[in-house]
Structures are given as structure tokens and as C-alpha cells.
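Write out this protein's structure.
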Amino acid sequence: MKNLEQIRAANALAYTQGGHNTGGQQGGNVLKKVPALIMGNGLLAASAFAFAQKDNGWRSCFDHIAKHLAHQDIAILPANTANLDQMLAFLTGPQADSQTLKLATDEALAWLAFARRFAPTGHGEDEE
């Protein structure tokens, strides 16, 4: 059986190797900005921001956060959750309480820590 670190790493690696757009509108790296956005405003507010974005990396990132949270070994979201819209519907619905939201937030941040490390750098992204 794999531990949580292995599952997070595998899911993050699959996302970063999948050719997904990790850049924002100005070419910044979304993966660098999402953790601060979640920590400062919460998972729901950060998700709402991504929900309003159009094809610039934000939605793709949050779609993969949703898939990670629905992974069979994570199971914070229902197994059939495949994108940001479904994640928001669940987390704002009657079946999700504040403990579920806290678990989802903590796990999303843990997944993002791996995704940031696996993401390629130096391709039009913000340099540190």
C-alpha cells in the first residue's frame, strides 16, 4: 500500500508531465500563486477565482486538485469528481461540512507542494 506522500507525488507528477498549462495570463506560474491564494483566502475563494478564469492554467490546476482529492486513496471528494465545477458543487453542498473543507484545503496544499517542485521552470514563468 502506498503512503500519502507517494500518492501526492504520483498525482502531481502526472499533472506536470501531462503537458498542462501552468502559466497565467501574464506568463506567471500558476503553481507558485495558488498556495498563497488558498492560504490567504481559503480553498473556496481560490476555487471561485479559478472558476472565473478562461484557459490560462488556473482551471487546469484546480481540475487536477479536484482529481487528486477524489483519488481512491485520498477520498475527500466523491470518486466521480473530475473537475473544478464538481469540486465546488460538492464542497458547497449539504454533504460537505467544515471538517471536509479543512481536509480538502490541507490536502490541496500538500499536493501543490509536490506539483510546484515537479513543474518545469524557466519557460516564460516568473523567476525567483
